[in-house]
Amino acid sequence: MLKNFFPNKILSVRDKFFSILIIMLVSIILVGLIYSLVISPPDYVQGDSVRIMYVHVPASLLALACFAFIGIASVFNLIFKIKILPLIAKSLAPVGFLFGLISIVTGSLWGKPTWGVWWAWDARLTSMTILLFFYIAYMLVWKIIDDFDKASKISSIIGIIGSLNLPIIKYSVEWWNTLHQPSSITFTSAPAIHYTMLIPLIIMLIGMIIYTIIIFLMKYKSEIIKFKLDKKKREINKS
Amino acid sequence: MLSKKARSRLFVLIFLLLLSGIVIFILFKSLKENVVYFFSPTEIYNNEKISFNKKIRVGGLVKKGSVTKNQMLINFIVTDLNNEIIVSYNGLLPNLFSEGKGVVAEGKLKDKKYLIADKILAKHDENYMPPEVKDALEKAKN
Q1: What is the pLDDT of residues A119-176, one digit of tens each?
Q2: Least C-beta-crowded within 10 Å: which of A46, B39, B116, B117?
Q3: Confidence of residue A71 (pLDDT cuts 50, 70, 90)
């Protein structure tokens, strides 16, 4: 599995592969948007503002998923010191951060008409904000520290500590009284969301996963090229 | 399978993770009252040390048939199906405020059964469905 992420494999990924992914992305997102904005019904309480959910939920999920991958890669990086792991984690951070930001902004836009406020410091919203700060800290470490080994070590520690926040985000709505509602889709019971709304949600989720993969692969490819260039530069400087 | 160095790094990591896990657990345990966004009427009823001078949030369902409006003054009952608190509020209600739905009221307690709110938030639940389905469900119930 990991073999596919080895530098030579990634560098040989052709532009054609990206074009196929992008065509898939555009068509799925288009179908998803038409479904969620036009075909799907309004909610019986929220009315049309329910449509914000079709962006909000997948974005939140992907923000968490990306950081979970960063956390796992960080653990293995600290133990085994495999050079490609920090590069994989580093490439996931910007797209994860973007989705986290989208999640907070869309949530806020939904909160005003539903709750009556843009923002509330409840456990779910606060822990999600903390995740955004972990993303920022993680990316800043890579920006500020020039030495690769040092940056990889410190960013991994941030990645691991940040992932401890992930179960807190996930279960905050069950452990404590929060203004944010509990999850509508759980592993244990039937979804509390009607299938006419579930279908566009899943389509949008698939579309946004493909988007994440595209951005990740592009970033990863450029990170590997940068890494190889730096190595070359150091060799030249030495000799 | 693991090299000696990798194994020692693994142990240090597991130790640190356990430690930070415990720290977080203790942190939240002691923060409990601050982590919750609102109290239920039962929690307020059972709480000996509740403050009557500080702002507090009460959450629950708006009891059916309890909303009375007198010009701008609105009175209603928040219930968690065990205990109830009367809330009186002067101001604009959020659009989704309605009987039988979730609500969070922020304000000061007069006593354990009476809250003067200066902010009302509507709490939405996890159920999403089109209006027709809701109507069908209501009909099936009756």
Answers
A1: 988 889 999 999 999 999 999 999 999 889 999 999 999 999 999 999 999 998 888 8
A2: B116
A3: very high
Amino acid letter, A168 = I
User: Following DSSP, what letter does each residue of B5-71 receive, concatenated?
Assistant: HHHHHHHHHHHHHHHHHHHHHHHHHHHHHHH-S-B-HHHHHH-TT--SSS-EEEEEEEPTT--EEET
What the block records as the tokens of B94 is 């959020």
Model confidence pLDDT, tens digit, residues B30-74: 777 677 888 888 888 888 777 788 888 889 999 888 888 887 788
Q: Does B125 touch chain A (CB under 8 A)?
A: yes
Fill in the DSSP letter of residue A136: H
Phi and psi at residue A160, to the nearest 5°? -70, -45
Q: Which residue of A has its CA nearest to B12?
A: A79
What Rg do the C-alpha atoms of chain A give, in angstroms? 20
- CA–CA separation, A199 and A205 (whole Å): 10
Q: What is the percentage of chain B residues whose pLDDT exceeds 90?
A: 6
CA A87 to the chain's CA centroid: 16
Q: Could you tell me the two tokens for A152?
A: 């990889």
Region for residue B51 given its phi and psi (left: phi exceeds 0; alpha: psi -120 to 50; beta: otherwise)? beta
- Name every residue whose Cβ is closer than 8 Å to that of residue B51 and which is 6 or more positions away in sequence: B109
Contacts of B55 in chain A (CB under 8 A): none
CA distance B38 to chain A (A): 6
Residue B72's SS3 state is coil
The three state secondary structure string of A146-192 is: CCHHHHHHHHHHHHHHHHCHHHHHHHHHHHCCCCCCCCCCCCCCCCC
Note whether A45 contacts B: Cβ–Cβ < 8 A: yes
Comparing C-alpha atoms, which of B94, B50, B73 is closest to residue B86? B73
Query: CA angle at residue A217 from A215 to A222, to 5 degrees?
Result: 95
The ipTM value here is 0.80
